[in-house]
Design brief:
methionine biosynthesis (chains A, B), homodimer, globular, alpha/beta, Aspartate-semialdehyde dehydrogenase (chains A, B), Asp_semialdehyde_DH_beta (chains A, B), 6-stranded mixed sheet, about 325 residues, Rossmann fold, NADP binding (chains A, B), Dihydrodipicolinate Reductase, domain 2, Asp_semialdehyde_DH (chains A, B), 7-stranded mixed sheet
Amino acid sequence: MRSYNVAVLGATGAVGQQMLQCLAEQDFPVGNLKLLASSRSAGKIMQFKGEDVVIEEARDEAFDGVDIVLGAAENNIAERFVPVAREKGAVTVDNSSAYRLDPDVPLVIPEVNPEDVAKHNGIIANPNCATIIGLVAVNPLHKLGGIKRMVVSTYQAASGAGVGGLRELESQMARIAAGEPVEDPKAFAYQLACNLIPQIGGFDEVGYTSEEMKMQNEGRKILHAADLRVNCTCVRVPVMRSHSESITLEFEREVSVEAAREALAAAPGVKLVDDPSALAYPMPLDTTDQDDIFVGRVREDISAAPGQHGLTLWCCGDQIRKGAATNAVQIAKMLAE
Amino acid sequence: MRSYNVAVLGATGAVGQQMLQCLAEQDFPVGNLKLLASSRSAGKIMQFKGEDVVIEEARDEAFDGVDIVLGAAENNIAERFVPVAREKGAVTVDNSSAYRLDPDVPLVIPEVNPEDVAKHNGIIANPNCATIIGLVAVNPLHKLGGIKRMVVSTYQAASGAGVGGLRELESQMARIAAGEPVEDPKAFAYQLACNLIPQIGGFDEVGYTSEEMKMQNEGRKILHAADLRVNCTCVRVPVMRSHSESITLEFEREVSVEAAREALAAAPGVKLVDDPSALAYPMPLDTTDQDDIFVGRVREDISAAPGQHGLTLWCCGDQIRKGAATNAVQIAKMLAE
C-alpha cells in the first residue's frame, strides 16, 4: 500500500494535536510526517504513534516532498502557505475559513457530499465546526424531504476558541469555586463560566455574526442547495469541547418522525440517541472525544402552519473531532484511496 | 394607606426568599407577615426589613386573617392550601403551575395583560419563568405586528430547580476545579457543570416536555391569542440564575428592525441592550439580580420566505426575580392598589 508524506500546518493547536491522533486512529498511511508551527514552537517535540517528532517552523521549503497537508492554522497562515503547498504539488485539506466559499475549492463533509472531493485543484476546505455538526445531523432528513429552511440556535463549546479558550474556562471555574474574582478574559470578550456569550465572530451590517452566516453559506455549498434559507443564532456556552444545536427544519415534502428516526439510525457518522422515556437524548458531555454526531429530541414542529412540513431536533458533536480534525482526516483518507 | 396581611407560602425556597426581598424593595404595604413552610422549617427565623420573623408550619389556620398569599410552593402544596386561603377570604398570587390554565384563574404578566388581574376569583396565577421572560421581551413587538408563530430555544439556569439546583451546580464546579469526580446528581438528571441537559419537565406523547408546552399554552392565554403557535426547545445550562432565550418570530404584519428597537426601548420592564459595534448584547451574568428583561441581537429573520414577516432576537432575565418573585409581587401590588 502506498504511503503519503503528510504535513500538519499548525500542529500545536487543539485541532492540530487532534489531527495527529485521528491520523493514528484512522490508520492513515503516513510516510514522512512533518509537524509545522510558528518559530516559537520549532525544535519542540510532539509524539505520533509513540515516536518523537521534532516540530519545524512553517516555511516554504518545509512543503517540499509533501503529498497531503492538513491545515489547522488561522486564515492568514493558511493564505500564506496553502498556495505554496499547491505549487509544490501537495493537496491541502484546510480547516481555516479562507477558501471555503472559493468556487474552485470543494467544501466537504464525507457523510454528505463525498463526490465533491474529486473536483479539487489542490485545496479541499473543511467546513466550520457548527456547520459540520448540524449538517451531519440533518443531511439524512434532507435526502428524505428536501430542506427549505433551518432555524438554528447553537450552544458552542469553549474549544472553538482553541486551547486558550479551554484554559480560560477552566481557570474561571477554579476561581469561582475558590471564591476569587475571575481574571479579565482574553480568549473571549466576556467571562464564559456561569455565563453565555451570544456572539461568535464579527457582526455584519444586518446584525448576524460571521459564525451565524457560515451555516447558510457553507450549507448551501455542501448540500448543493442554492436556495436553502438558514437563520442561525450562535451562542458560546460554558462547555468544554462539544457543540450542541437546536434545529427546526422546514421541508419541501412531508417527513414523518418515524421516517426521520429510521434514516438517522441508519446514517453514517450519526448515533440516534432518542428515547425520552429513558431520559436518553444527546448531551455534550457524552459526545466529548467521540467522532459520531448524536441526534435526538426528534419531534414534529408543532408551530408549522398547515401545509408546512416541519421537524425539530437536538444534536451534539465534539467540536475538535468531527467539527474539525476527524472530518479533515476522513477527507485525507478519501484522497489517499 | 391601607396595609395588607401577607402570607408567603413556601417562604424558605429560592423564590420565597426573593419574594420577601421584593416586598421590601417594592414598598408593599405589609401589615402582618406570615412565613409559611413545612414543619421541618417551623420555628426557624427569617428576616424581613431587618426584623426577625418566625417561620410557621403551613396549616389551614395559618391563613386566618390573611389578605394576600404569595405562593412559592410546588403544585401539591398549592393545591392543598390555595383553596383554603380563598375560602378564608384571601387572594393568592400563585407561582405553581397548578392553576395557570384554569379558565377561572387569570394568568398575568403586569407588563403584558394587567387588565386580567381584575377578573380574579381569589386566585391569580404567576406564569412559568421562561414564559414570563420571553413574553416581556416579545410583547412590545406583538403589539406592533401580531405574532403568529414563535420558534424558541431556551438556555435555562440552575435556579429553575431551586436552591438545590444552585448548590448542585456550585458543588460540581468546585469538584471539577479540584480534579475530583462529580457526585451523583440529585437536583438534575445528569451532571450540569460543563454540560447541557435538553430536558426540563416530563415528556408528552409527541416528544415535547411540559416546560416546552408552557410557552405555547400560557402564551396563548396571556396574549389572548388562541391561534399562537410556539415551538420551544428547553435546555438547562450551567448558569446560576438567569434564563436566556433565542427567539424567532413570525408576524401578521411587517415589523422593521428599527420599529422593533424603538418599541423595545420604550417598553416597561425591558432594557434594550443592542449595540453590536460595542459588543453590547444581553448576557445572563448581567441580568443576575436585576428585575428588567434585557433584549438584544434584534435582526431580520433572513430565513423568512417572501411575504413572511420575521424577526429574531435574544433575551435574558433573572429567573428568580422577574421569572417568579418580582412578577408575583407586582401582581400583589396591583391587587393592593
